[in-house]
């Protein structure tokens, strides 16, 4: 990437910037700040790495104006370095973009595959599937009957999308995702569990990214819904009838029980858990390993099990560390009170 190409790319993405440095650029990829070479782009966003910024050999460093004097490298000054780095990383490392249908793929005759799409080896596409332009469907994927994919979706290897599910535009499903599998629905009767057919769908909005081996169950009667702009990590489980609000972020190994309703712009750290049939306000952050056992009606940070406001949980944790000391103090106080009582009785 030459300087003119870089500046044009930034302008196309409506990024306000200031370039400081040489006119001659020959950038080939992105790299870590510490190990970047003269042909690589790095970014600086952590004041703890100032020494690495001073010594970096990067061909271009993306950073904020307040740190521009700490390096003699070519500098791209922006308000949000991490965002600009992400765009450039995408530029240098685009998702696969192929066209055509592999000979081993099995595509029902009712399906119209746009010429801009790619259908990989051993893919199976059932009847009634609708494919938007530019979809990339990797090896081993399965699309059940009447599935709908919007434009420019990417399905990694061995993704399964069961019947009637709907994906919006530019949805990314990494390897091994299962969308629309049967939810965990059983009715107890005389010591047995009677299966309840799950006849809802999974509806996924636009610009959603879902990580490897994540499972999202179809609804029992109503739909399971993932709204626009959500990002979901690997190994997340979302049960039947759950709704995840717009722009929410969910880290690995988080689980949502059935019919939970999550607001917009929420964040769930790793291994968090949500009990079924709860409502979670917009703007809630659930910290790692927290267990949400009741509805959260106010935005803010929550921790612990059961999840409570993080500030309160931190105070309780500090006290918990001192339980042994406090127990001994209470024992001493009880002994002192007993002795004082005996003295009073003797008088």
TrEMBL record:
| BP terms from Gene Ontology | lipid A biosynthetic process
| EC number(s) stated in the UniProt entry for this protein | 2.3.1.191
List each copy of the UDP-3-O-[3-hydroxymyristoyl] glucosamine N-acyltransferase non-repeat region domain by range. 26-90
Molecular function terms in GO for this entry?
N-acyltransferase activity; UDP-3-O-[(3R)-3-hydroxyacyl]-glucosamine N-acyltransferase activity
Q: Which reaction does it catalyse?
A: a UDP-3-O-[(3R)-3-hydroxyacyl]-alpha-D-glucosamine + a (3R)-hydroxyacyl-[ACP] = a UDP-2-N,3-O-bis[(3R)-3-hydroxyacyl]-alpha-D-glucosamine + holo-[ACP] + H(+)
Q: Is Transferase set as a keyword in this record? A: yes
Query: Which GO cellular component term is one of those annotated?
Result: membrane
Instruction: Kindly tell me the pathway this chain contributes to.
Output: Bacterial outer membrane biogenesis; LPS lipid A biosynthesis
- UniProt keyword list: Acyltransferase, Lipid A biosynthesis, Lipid biosynthesis, Lipid metabolism, Repeat, Transferase
Location of the active site:
240
* NCBIfam families named among the record's database cross-references: lipid_A_lpxD (TIGR01853), PRK00892.1 (NF002060)
Similarity comment text for this entry: Belongs to the transferase hexapeptide repeat family. LpxD subfamily.
- Subunit and partners: Homotrimer.
Role according to the record: Catalyzes the N-acylation of UDP-3-O-acylglucosamine using 3-hydroxyacyl-ACP as the acyl donor. Is involved in the biosynthesis of lipid A, a phosphorylated glycolipid that anchors the lipopolysaccharide to the outer membrane of the cell.
Annotated protein name in UniProt: UDP-3-O-acylglucosamine N-acyltransferase
Organism of provenance: Thiosulfativibrio zosterae
Organism lineage string: Bacteria, Pseudomonadati, Pseudomonadota, Gammaproteobacteria, Thiotrichales
């Amino acid at each position: 990437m030459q300087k003119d190409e870089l500046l044009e790319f930034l302008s196309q993405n409506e990024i306000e910037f200031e370039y400081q440095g040489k006119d001659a650029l020959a950038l080939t990829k992105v790299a870590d700040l510490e190990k970047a070479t003269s042909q690589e782009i790095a970014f600086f966003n952590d004041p703890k790495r100032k020494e690495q910024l001073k010594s970096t050999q990067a061909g271009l460093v993306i950073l904020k104006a307040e740190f521009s004097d700490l390096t003699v490298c070519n500098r791209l000054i922006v308000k949000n370095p991490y965002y600009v780095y992400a765009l450039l990383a995408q530029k240098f490392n685009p998702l696969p973009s192929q066209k055509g249908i592999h000979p081993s793929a099995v595509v029902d005759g009712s399906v119209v595959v746009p010429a801009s799409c790619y259908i990989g080896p051993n893919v199976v596409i059932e009847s009634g599937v609708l494919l938007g332009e530019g979809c990339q469907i990797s090896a081993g994927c399965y699309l059940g009957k009447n599935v709908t994919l919007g434009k420019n979706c990417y399905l990694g290897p061995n993704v399964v999308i069961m019947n009637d599910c709907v994906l919006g535009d530019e949805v990314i499903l990494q390897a091994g995702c299962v969308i629309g599998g049967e939810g965990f629905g059983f009715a107890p009767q005389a010591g047995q569990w009677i299966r309840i057919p799950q006849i809802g769908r999974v509806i996924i909005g636009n610009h959603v990214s879902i990580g490897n081996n994540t499972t999202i169950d179809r609804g029992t009667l109503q739909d399971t819904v993932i709204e626009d702009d959500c990002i979901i990590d690997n190994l997340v489980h979302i049960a039947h009838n759950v709704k995840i609000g717009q722009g929410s972020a969910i880290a690995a190994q988080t689980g949502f029980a059935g019919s939970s309703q999550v607001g917009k712009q929420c964040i769930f750290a790793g291994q968090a858990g949500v009990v079924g049939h709860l409502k979670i306000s917009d703007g809630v952050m659930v910290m790692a390993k927290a267990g949400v056992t009741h509805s959260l009606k106010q935005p803010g940070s929550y921790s612990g099990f059961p999840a409570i406001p993080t500030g309160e949980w931190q105070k309780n944790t500090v006290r918990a560390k001192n339980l042994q000391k406090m127990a001994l103090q209470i024992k001493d106080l009880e002994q002192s009170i007993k002795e004082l009582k005996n003295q009073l009785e003797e008088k």
